[in-house]
Amino acid sequence: MVPRSPEGSDRWASRGSRLACRIRDGVSQCRPSDHIERLRAKLRSARQRGTDVGRFVDYMDEPFMQLGGEIADSEKLDRFKSGLTGRERDSVYFSRPSTYEDVKQVALSLAGSNQPTAAPPRPAVSDAKASTRRPVSSQARRPHTRSMGTPAGRVTCYLCKQEGHWKRDCPQRLAYLQAEVDRLSRLQAEASRGEEAENQRRPG
């Protein structure tokens, strides 16, 4: 029986509140009320400072995943760029990525530790299993038509200058990013050689 004293009622109400909180969040304890602000403060103070780019990506991905819909992709992009240091920072700013995934690809490619972002290929189906599957009808293979019509005006890709897709959907996007990274690396190497030659010409 639930106690009828005020003290007992408060105790039972407190237990019920904690239980409801655990059920709602699916964790053993409720998150503190300032959890979002703590994650944002962590992102504001995040700096690479000589850390490997791959580890810095993992460090930034953790609060991004916890924030979920609380943070926009543009803010992810800005937070990541502001946290980079050294040649990675310069190369990323010169390449002008438009999304958070783009900036990760540029940084990881420059560091020589580009990680695969696509899911692993599915295993092949054995002949025995394939024979039990129902054949796909011709109606199912018919291309799906859009009911909203075509967009007004033709779309031209900013990268390859071809019509029919946006920059973010360009099949050559990663190749362009890699070429930009290689170009920036060559420029940095030429600048370093020019500086060394200038230092050698100076009188001792």
Automatic annotation (TrEMBL):
Residues 157-172 form the CCHC-type domain. Residues 112-152 are annotated as: Disordered. The keyword Metal-binding applies. InterPro entries: Znf_CCHC, Znf_CCHC_sf. Pfam families: zf-CCHC (PF00098). GO terms for molecular function: nucleic acid binding; zinc ion binding. Keywords: Metal-binding, Zinc, Zinc-finger. The keyword Lipid biosynthesis does not apply. This is CCHC-type domain-containing protein.
